[in-house]
Specification:
Two copies of one chain form a homodimer. By secondary structure, chain A is α+β, with helices and mostly antiparallel strands. Chain A has one domain: Winged helix-like DNA-binding domain superfamily/Winged helix DNA-binding domain (Arc Repressor Mutant, subunit A, Orthogonal Bundle). A three-stranded antiparallel β-sheet of chain A has the order 1-3-2. The longest helix of chain A is centred in the C-terminal third of the chain and has 16 residues. The radius of gyration of chain A is 15 Å and the shape is elongated. The first copy, chain A, starts with a helix and ends in a 6-residue tail after the last helix. The interface between A and B is large, with 40 and 40 residues. Chain A binds a DNA duplex through helix 4.
Chain lengths: 97, 97
DNA sequence: TTCATACTTGCATCTTAATGCAAGTGTATA
DNA sequence: TATACACTTGCATTAAGATGCAAGTATGAA
């Protein structure tokens, strides 16, 4: 079942509280760099950096380099679409053939 | 942010491939007991039992004891509702105030 | 070219969780 | 009551992942 690994890896990347906190933060900030997120979420710089790159790797965030800084932004529509796709699949009666 | 822990724990329970496989299986089977799921998913009995109880604890599954057997079923609407709630929150501009 | 800033990555440590066997609990049937 | 069946739980092992410091890389400014 390829949907299993597709969705389980998405859920995994969203399952860490710090990571999900960053997602919510980016949801209201529109975009932010590593230093800003590290500060407002009170998480070590290197930890934030790794979380963001993991979220980016999963397609949840986009990244935009401006000079020395990297600005991350939430890919709202993609993320929302994936979750609704899962919800639809769950609600349709025989979802995993 | 209480939504962070609410959703991160939901995502965590869905993030294990075996567990998500059981969810998909229950999605098409409507309901099944531990032995049936253990067999069709090729996972050790005790492992399946623990995964199911974790999913039940998270409100993803319901359980129904019939004699010696326990039949688990997927709470489709609740699960779909939660995920759509998350999707809506993500898409609304300032979601985490 | 030197320095500071912004970020990434290597590494060691520590938690958390998954796994499977074996033992325990509960329930129906002989 | 004894036995079998369905499941749960304890325990030890193993693996995966989070964390933070320190060192490395990249980019802009002096």
């Amino acid at each position: 079942m390829k949907n299993v690994s597709k969705f389980s890896s998405l859920f995994k990347v969203l399952s860490d509280p710090n990571r999900l906190g960053l997602v919510f933060e980016l949801c209201k900030c529109r975009e932010a760099n590593v230093g800003q997120l590290s500060q407002c979420c009170s998480i070590d710089f290197s930890v934030v950096s790794r979380h963001l790159s993991k979220l980016k790797g999963a397609g949840v965030l986009g990244a935009n380099k401006k000079g020395k800084e990297v600005y991350y932004d939430l890919k709202r529509e993609e993320l929302a679409r994936l979750l609704r796709e899962f919800a639809d699949e769950i609600e349709s009666s025989s979802c995993c053939n």
